[in-house]
C-alpha cells in the first residue's frame, strides 16, 4: 500500500479478534503480509495466546495499536463499540485510517467520537470471509479519500470481493449480503430436510444439496447469465422443476423473501439510528 496514511506506519491492527477478525488476519497473511506487519486486540488472554501461537501475530492493547498501526480495523460487536472508541479517542491521530466492520454503525459516530479529521471507511462484510469468499461493501466517511478507499480494497481483497456504495445504501447491503449467507443456509437446511422426508439418508441429502449449491453459485459467477436464464434452462415443459416452482409461488416464497430482506434492512437502520446522535 502506498497511500500517505500507511507510508510511515504500514502495520495493520485488527481491533477484535473474533471469527471475522481472525479471518481477516489469516487472509492478510495469505495475501503476502508479514506477521510483524500485523497486530490485534483481544480482551480474553487465552484467546489472544491462541492467535499468537497460530499465526505469530502480536496481541496488543488499543493504545499500542493506535500508536503503531496506520490502519485500524474495528471488528468488535456493535454493542461493544463505546469502550473501544473511548480508548481510541485520546490515542488515534489524523494520519490513521479507521475501518469499521461493525454492522449498522455510521461513519458519523466515529467522526463525532474521534479527533477531527480522522478518515473513516465503513464496511459491511459477510461470514464467507472465513473461507476467503467474502462480499464486502465499502463507503467513505467525510474525511476519507480515494486513496483510503483503495487501501481498504487492497486489505479486503485478500478475503473476497469488494464493491463501493454510498453510505446511504449500507443498510440495504447489510440486509442483502451481510445477512445473505444465513438465507442460503436456511434454504439448504430446508432442502436437506426435504431429502430426508423423501427417504434419502441425511449424509446423502447433504452431499447432494451442498454440491448443487456450490455448482449453482459457480454457474452464476462464471457464466454471467441472468438467474432467470439459468433457471429456465432447468425448467422443462410439464417437468419436475416447473411443478416445484409452481408450489414455491403458491406458497409465496418470493414475497416472503422480499419481506424478510426489508425487515433486515429496517433493523439495520434501527441499530444505526441509535448511534447517529448523542
From TrEMBL:
Report whether Cytoplasm shows up as a keyword of the record: yes
The UniProt record lists the EC number as 1.5.1.2
Keyword field contains Cell cycle: no
Under catalytic activity, the entry for this protein gives: L-proline + NADP(+) = (S)-1-pyrroline-5-carboxylate + NADPH + 2 H(+); L-proline + NAD(+) = (S)-1-pyrroline-5-carboxylate + NADH + 2 H(+)
GO cellular component, as recorded = cytoplasm
Q: Which residues form the Pyrroline-5-carboxylate reductase catalytic N-terminal domain?
A: 12-104
List, alphabetically, the InterPro entries matched: 6-PGluconate_DH-like_C_sf, NAD(P)-bd_dom_sf, P5C_Rdtase_cat_N, P5CR-like_CS, P5CR_dimer, Pyrroline-COOH_reductase
| Signal peptide positions on this chain | none
The Pyrroline-5-carboxylate reductase dimerisation domain sits at 167-271
| Protein localization | Cytoplasm
Q: Where does NADP(+) bind?
A: 75-78
Gene Ontology molecular function terms on file: pyrroline-5-carboxylate reductase activity
Named in its record, the pathway it takes part in is: Amino-acid biosynthesis; L-proline biosynthesis; L-proline from L-glutamate 5-semialdehyde: step 1/1
Sorted keywords for this record are: Amino-acid biosynthesis, Cytoplasm, NADP, Oxidoreductase, Proline biosynthesis
Q: What is its main location?
A: cytoplasm
For this entry, list what GO says about its biological process.
L-proline biosynthetic process
Recorded family membership:
Belongs to the pyrroline-5-carboxylate reductase family.
Name the job this protein performs. Answer: Catalyzes the reduction of 1-pyrroline-5-carboxylate (PCA) to L-proline.
> What name does UniProt use for this protein?
Pyrroline-5-carboxylate reductase
